[in-house]
Amino acid sequence: MARADSLRMRAGQIFCACDIDGLPLDLDSLPKDASVLRMALAFGASVLAQVLTLSVLPIASASFVSVSGSLPWPYMALLLGAALAGFPASILLDRLGRQSAFALGASLGLAGGLLAAFALIERLFPAFVIGLLWLGMAQGFGLFYRHAGAMAGRAGGLVFGAGALGALIGPFVIELLSINPGPLAAASILGMSGFAHLVTLGLAIGLPGRQIEITLASNEVRRPPLRVLISATCIAALAWFGMNGVMAHAPLAMAGCGLTFSMSAIAMAAHLSAMYWPGFTIGHFVIRFGALPTALMGLVLLISGGVGILVQTSLLGFTAFMAMAGYGWGMATIGSTAAIHRAGHPSVLSLAAHDMILFLSAFVGAMMFGRL
Q: Vertex 198, ends 41 and 75: CA angle to 5°?
């Protein structure tokens, strides 16, 4: 018989108090099929917004700065916003449920995309940076879809598959919007990233609220060992450091080789979709080799792809090595996430700290490798 956690029972709220066989922990973490589909589609729209933003951001940022060697402040603001959103997203997901937390994150993305587009057209650099900060916060909230998928076991493949599909749609959207002249092309792409978050918002508000609030007492919940948390976080942090160095450097390198927005978007989409391909097959690697060794293999692939990018001059070369780096990032990140969740039921604060460290590592990677 499951016991109600008195710390989480609050006046004015009604919860189901029925015991259900086979559901050992937080029942709200195991979404129903309709909820899973909504989460998957929302995650796909969130990844589409990332493709649109990241494909155009380095070049849009460079249009504000004429001095070589300057730091990519808008891209760094994007990552900083994602890092800052880690703790609020985790706490709100726990206290308010998926519906409210994901809707709030999507609202920030909608506002950020529209503000960034307006600021780019009007040449308002401070407003442009603020818009990217809000878009980054939306990404920080959206990152927790992967934890929801991991908690729901069988739903993980669907959620990650929707992310890959969202990335593959990106180049077609960018191709349509690139017909606009001059800065309007980049501005329209950023604006469309905001509308992609609007789709996420519409899906998020349809998620079921917190219908069940029965959980084991806190002293009976099996938490992941500290060594697992530290190891998984270190591997994933190195992966995020390298991946964001790639994503900050590659678009500028492709522009330097004469590749257009739409051409560079193909390589970026291959990279971002490859980030979620491991979601379909990584379970076999985890069972055979273990979660942490799988994550380490992914880190090696990421490093190999990043080194290969440094010597590329063609679209095919950039696409191949960016896909390799993306797949390696996916193995490292999903493997690390699997290691944490397979070792126990992580606390709210440990997940928030884990994701915040990842985004701070990404911030450092962009600062080191993404100079304009």
A: 95
CB atoms within 10 A of CB 183: 15
CA distance readout (Å), 46 to 30, 264, 337: 21, 20, 19
- For residue 235, give the nearest of 335, 136, 118 by alpha carbon: 335
Output b/e per residue, 204-215; b: 16+ Cβ within 10 A. Answer: beebeebebbbb
Give the pLDDT confidence score for residue 81 in this predicted structure: 86
Crossing angle for the helix pair 156-177 and 144-151, to the nearest 10 degrees:
150
Task: Tell me the two tokens of residue 12.
Answer: 């004015």
What are the CA-CA distances from residue 233 to residues 72, 74, 205, 327, 354 (Å)? 26, 26, 31, 18, 6
Which residues sit opposite 298 in a β-bridge? Answer: none
Give the rounded percent of residues in the chain with a pLDDT score beyond 70: 75
Tokens of 300: 């090696």
Residues 6+ apart with CB under 8 A from 234: none
- 156: pLDDT strictly greater than 60: no
pLDDT band for position 261 (50/70/90)?
Answer: low
- DSSP letter assigned to residue 277: T
Closest C-alpha among 241, 237, 200 to residue 355:
237
Rounded distance between C-alpha atoms, residue 262 and residue 177, angstroms: 9
- Distance, CA of 209 to CA of 224 (rounded, Å): 27
| Residue spans per domain, the chain | 30-369
Question: What pLDDT, in 10s, does the model give residues 74-103?
Answer: 877 887 888 777 667 667 766 666 677 778
**Is the domain covering 30-369 a CATH 1.10.10.10 domain?**
no
Whether 255 contacts 59, CB under 8 Å:
yes
